[in-house]
Specification:
Blueprint (H helix, E strand, L loop, with lengths): L7 E4 L2 E5 L2 E7 L9 E6 L15 E9 L2 E7 L3 H8 L5 E8 L11 E7 L4 H10 L4 E6 L2 H4 L9 E4 L6 E2 L2 H11 L3 E6 L2 H14 L3 E4 L15 E4 L3 E4 H4 L2 E3 L10
Parallel strand pairs: 8-9, 8-12, 9-10, 10-11, 12-13
Antiparallel strand pairs: 1-7, 2-3, 3-6, 4-5, 4-7, 5-6, 13-16, 14-15
Helix pairs in contact: 4-5
Length: 258
């Protein structure tokens, strides 16, 4: 759907924690698709001190959209995300969106395999809601605290870097084993660049189609600033905020850290 013009102010309606992550709920009547994102900013104290410039809005994939309520999965990794993680019910939130191209249905009746890492778990939750029980979910996290994020989805198989939960290793270990048993799949992935590059390379090796939701710092969210461009095959560039964030893995020679 077309995003409403301009940003709007809403009040946080819910907040909960899942290990290292915070989930914020906000009322909004838009109907996003899995893979789309919103630009978020706290309505108060959004920035440094009195004479300092405010932070830019932050781009977050929508985690769920139900009954007029949006959910977002956040992690405190810096001043901007820390301020958003502090928000509580009743606090004001500026949001704009939904923006970007979503995931699309699997080709040739292939079975969907969802692969996520860290906060890249978020768009897979709404995708699982869209796809239903047919979707296999594989998630990777650094440790047990972060692996609590897997509870936000249903029946996820988990890998952790330190072996504290599930498979000791990378989520791509689980993916390789799964595709080795049945390669007639289409992979949907979101996570950090190193994980996405491993997924892309593995799917290319095995001839499995994949859709990748790439992460990038975005200043505007609607294509004006060209701050989120990434290279694609043929020597061209695309803007992730309007041409993505979901790209076909076959269009990429590699996923680079942005």
């Amino acid at each position: 759907m077309t995003a409403p013009l301009g940003r709007r102010r809403v009040e946080i309606s819910g907040r909960r924690e899942a290990g290292a992550y915070v989930v914020l709920e906000a009322p909004d009547e838009t109907a996003p698709r899995a893979g789309q994102f919103y630009m978020l900013a706290a309505a108060e104290r959004w920035g440094g001190g009195e004479d300092e410039r405010p932070f830019l809005p932050r781009a977050f994939s929508v985690m769920r959209a139900r009954d007029g309520v949006l959910e977002f999965m956040l992690e405190d990794v810096g001043p901007g995300t820390r301020r958003l993680c502090e928000l509580s019910p009743g606090d004001g939130l500026w949001l704009a969106g939904p923006f970007g191209r979503p995931f699309v249905p699997a080709r040739d009746a292939r079975r969907p395999v969802l692969v996520g890492g860290g906060v890249g778990t978020a768009p897979l939750a709404i995708l699982q809601d869209e796809l239903g029980a047919a979707a296999l979910v594989l998630l990777g996290f650094r440790d047990a605290s972060h692996a609590e994020g897997a509870t936000l989805l249903r029946d996820a198989r988990v890998a952790t870097d330190d072996g504290s939960v599930g498979h000791h290793g990378y989520v791509t270990d689980l993916l390789r084993a799964e595709l080795g048993c049945d390669a007639r799949a289409e992979v949907y992935a979101c996570g950090p660049p190193l994980m996405l590059e491993a997924v892309r390379a593995l799917c290319e090796e095995l001839g499995v189609p994949a859709q990748l939701a790439l992460e990038a710092g975005m200043a505007c969210g609607f294509g004006a600033c060209f701050g989120c461009v990434v290279p694609v095959r043929g020597g061209n560039y695309v803007r992730l905020c309007v041409d993505g964030p979901v790209l076909d893995a076959a269009d990429l020679e590699a996923v680079h850290a942005h």
